[in-house]
């Protein structure tokens, strides 16, 4: 059971975990041991609340297929248990990230005094630069 928040949990049957062989160098052990984890989570079939499902499916993430299946591959660690924990933690982080509501941005404009100050600084800087020109004797 994966706990997402206080009132949202995922049952073990919702998450499909498969052990596969890890890629990359690793000597003789890498060819014999299936230590990497392939995690698949079907968003549409899950028991997540509708708000979570909508937000997840709206994400533009390469890990989410067109059918609404999240596919994660964990192979950072040497043991299957650590890779399984890593994959579950990444799934939880993805779901939590999707449900964060961004604060709406309100357009602001600088005050009159700030605008005057800026223009005065520009004028002063221009005068300083003008004095750098060639001297005429």
From TrEMBL:
Identify a single GO molecular function assigned to this protein. Answer: peptidyl-tRNA hydrolase activity
User: Catalytic activity annotated for this protein?
Assistant: an N-acyl-L-alpha-aminoacyl-tRNA + H2O = an N-acyl-L-amino acid + a tRNA + H(+)
User: From which domain of life does this come?
Assistant: Bacteria
Instruction: Give GO terms for biological process.
Output: regulation of translation; rescue of stalled ribosome
Report if keyword Hydrolase is assigned: yes
Give the PROSITE patterns listed for this entry: RF_PROK_I (PS00745)
Basic residues bias: start-end ranges:
106-127
So what family is this one in?
Belongs to the prokaryotic/mitochondrial release factor family.
The identity of this protein, by name, is Peptidyl-tRNA hydrolase ArfB
């Amino acid at each position: 059971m994966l706990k997402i928040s206080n009132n949202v949990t995922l049952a073990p049957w919702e998450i499909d975990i498969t052990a596969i062989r890890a890629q990359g160098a690793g000597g003789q052990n890498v060819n014999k041991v299936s230590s990497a984890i392939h995690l698949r989570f079907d968003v549409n079939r899950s028991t997540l609340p509708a708000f979570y499902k909508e937000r997840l499916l709206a994400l533009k993430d390469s890990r989410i297929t067109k059918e609404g299946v999240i596919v994660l591959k964990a192979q950072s660690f040497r043991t299957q248990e650590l890779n399984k924990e890593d994959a579950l933690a990444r799934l939880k982080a993805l779901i939590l990230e999707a449900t964060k509501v961004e604060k709406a941005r309100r357009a602001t404009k600088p005050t009159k005094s700030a605008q005057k100050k800026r223009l005065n600084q520009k004028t002063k800087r221009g005068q300083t630069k003008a004095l750098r020109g060639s001297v005429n004797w």
